[in-house]
Write a structure and sequence with these properties.
The complex is a heterodimer of chains A (327) and B (320). Chain A is an alpha/beta fold and 327 residues long. Chain A is built from twelve helices and 14 strands. Helix content of chain A is 37%, strand content 20%. Chain A has two domains: 182 residues, Rossmann fold, CATH 3.40.50.970; 128 residues, 3-Layer(aba) Sandwich (Rossmann fold), CATH 3.40.50. In chain A, helix 1 runs parallel beside helix 7, helix 3 runs parallel beside helix 4 and helix 8 crosses helix 12. By secondary structure, chain B is α/β, with parallel strands linked by helices. In chain B, strand 2, helix 6 and strand 3 form a beta-alpha-beta unit. Chain B is globular, with a radius of gyration of 19 Å. The N and C termini of chain B lie far apart (58 Å). Classes of the chains: A alpha/beta (327), B alpha/beta (320). Bound molecules: thiamine diphosphate and magnesium ion. Thiamine diphosphate sits at the interface of chains B and A.
Amino acid sequence: MREMTYKEAINLAMREEMRRDPDVFLMGEDVGIYGGAFGVSVGLIEEFGEERVRDTPISEAIITGAAAGAAVTGMRPIVEIMFMDFTTLAMDALVNQAAKMRYMFGGKAKVPMTLRCAGGSGTGAAAQHSQSLEAWFCHIPGLKVVVPGTPKDAKGLLKAAIRDDNPVVFVEQKTLYKEKGMVPEEDDFIIPLGVGEIKKEGKDVTVVSYGRMLPRVLKVAEELEREGISVEVVDPRTLVPLDKEIIINSVIKTGRAVLVNEACKTGGYLGEIASVIVESEAFDYLDAPIVRLAGLDVPIPYNPELEKAVVPSEEQIRAGILKVLNR
Amino acid sequence: MNTISKEILREMYKRMNEARAFEEKVSYFFARGMVHGTTHLSIGQEASAIAACMALNDDDLMTSTHRGHSQVIGKGIDLNKMVAELLGKYTGYCKGKGGSMHIADVEVGNLGANGVVGGGHGIAVGAALTQKMKNTGKIVLCFFGDGAANEGSFHEALNLASVWKLPVIFYCENNQYGMSVPIDKTMNIENVADRASAYGIPGYIIDGNNAIEVYTKMKEIAKYVRGGNGPVLVESKTYRWLGHSKSDAQVYRTKEEVETWKKKCPIQQLRKYIIENNVMDARELDEIENNARKAIEDAVIFANNSPNPPIESVTEDVYA
Ligand SMILES: Cc1ncc(C[n+]2csc(CCOP(=O)(O)OP(=O)(O)O)c2C)c(N)n1
Ligand SMILES: [Mg+2]
């Protein structure tokens, strides 16, 4: 174990996988000498050279399309799309091509590609550089979707994503890049896709959250703990496939559920998680309506105070937890 | 021999100095962490942007880019509202919701800076379609970078505008890099303008650091486009002096290269031209420069005295 940042953990995961498997390579805008817009690929071009760390033209559609094409013919590409917002330009490649090939071709094709992108607000980058679009990808059969919330998860999940034989959308969180945590250094440390984690055990209420909101939720949970309220924090880590069991079991235990994410509420993934709960046996254990805390249904504004007001705050998370407890 | 009026030259010199002073101020703000977010400065590209805008009519339209400060100042803008927007104030062009990357003034035909590389291509084509369908006689100036010329939207836009003969000038500010990547690593041709022939439209290359050349050529080009002959592709060769955005160590280029381009300073070149052609003397030009700096200082005071957007405004203008 070594303490490192979220971004170093992602860098290390790519490095290890590229050392292990010559078919793994990285392509994207400014991933070479610049080291990626957020510095995630720093040092990779020095170790692996221009052939395997490929600076591309500003052409998201072809980069992603080419990843699908390379993947289906035996390579294992990692694509970096600088901001999640620009996956919009890569949607045909991802949604109509990569996601469909294996099934549509009768199971004969495999598309082992990983698309990494940086999501979320909080950096003052305004409406076109701040979105959390994970629900879009979750809606597409054929795409796996990962949103790591800690450095350790980032490393273990990215390695799993790269080794996966199917397209994976790996959503990094800009505001977590500099967060530190202990990360296993072993080469074979992998976190399987589809396995959630209880980030904090508790018995009074379940909070399901992921990504950027996770540290916020944990902080509130610790505070409430000191006030005698026992909060269980469940991090699904991968949205697709979703570890339904870990969520359902936790809600059966606590009887109350609060769901927190940054993305806009309407059509967001929290609605899916809520449905998973109410469609399961956990429904009978619910002592209060489920509370969803999500981003406002607005584009992300530039002004820092407005920007903050768009996503759930610690106060709102606290209030949401108290509400589901009827306090 | 000089053929451009003193009024135009004065205004051009003024706007170029305002743009420079504005961006120096922005750079200062960012260096001290006084502004949120990021910014893309166009110091060194003032002639390319401003002289091009000025060659068009005031009521023509334009789309701008992430590196758009000079472009919007070229179009003619209220500096107070611009600085206020940068500082996220309610009095800013976008009521503090857009910031540096999204300055827009739709009422005067500035259809907005764009955070998405290549995002303006479609908007420009559509705006040109409106002008054609409504027979307004107006044309559209579509700014974009060399890097943006590799987005699919560039190719689709040029093709459609060409077959529909739309009044749009695709104006590529080739500053040699898209972020860290030099143009020779992203396209296998010498000039972006070479692509024009693939769409059956004229392509022009101009010296973007020479305001006089930009203005004169763009006057002719605008006339051609206004004449219903369809779009053109113009490549303005220029260079950005500073990093791509606020955080850029610039490891991808040499100090010597930057210094060489600084010697081709667009403002100094215009100054020299104006003096050599006896249009204005050094004193007059100094005064314009000082006034430009003062205008920015005044705009900063205006912005600082402006209110922040009320928190309730976060849901203003939301309709779905
Ligand atoms: C679709 C999209 N991809 C990537 C980016 C990130 N990005 C912002 S500016 C830029 C470089 C643009 O280069 P160019 O078009 O030459 O304009 P310049 O910055 O040189 O003015 C990049 C890659 C973006 N904003 N939008
Ligand atoms: Mg450029």
